[in-house]
Amino acid sequence: MPVPAVPAPAAPIVPASAMPTSAMPAPVTEALGNGAPSNATVANKAWYTITIGRSVGIFCGWHNVPPLVNGVKGFCVVCHLSWEAALDTFEEAEASGIVK
Known about the structure:
26% of the residues lie in helices and 15% in strands. The chain is of the alpha+beta class. Strands 2-1-3 form a three-stranded antiparallel β-sheet. β1 and β2 form a beta hairpin. The radius of gyration is 13 Å and the shape is globular.
């Protein structure tokens, strides 16, 4: 069961251009060619679906999330305990047209 979305902090809006693209972590779906990570990769991990942010996709570990959403007005992040649940959420958001 997904954890409720994390509310956006009251922070100034920072343009995406303020962060170099090379500093942004790649989403797991992109990094792995849209395939599920191996069982060794997913054990005991928290997965974050970002549907509104500087970069969107599924990311492993909270440490990857703040640089992609801090300062983005109305960002949307949902935490999941499995990669499959994170993928379901991302695909549902994408089908609904809310991925930005």
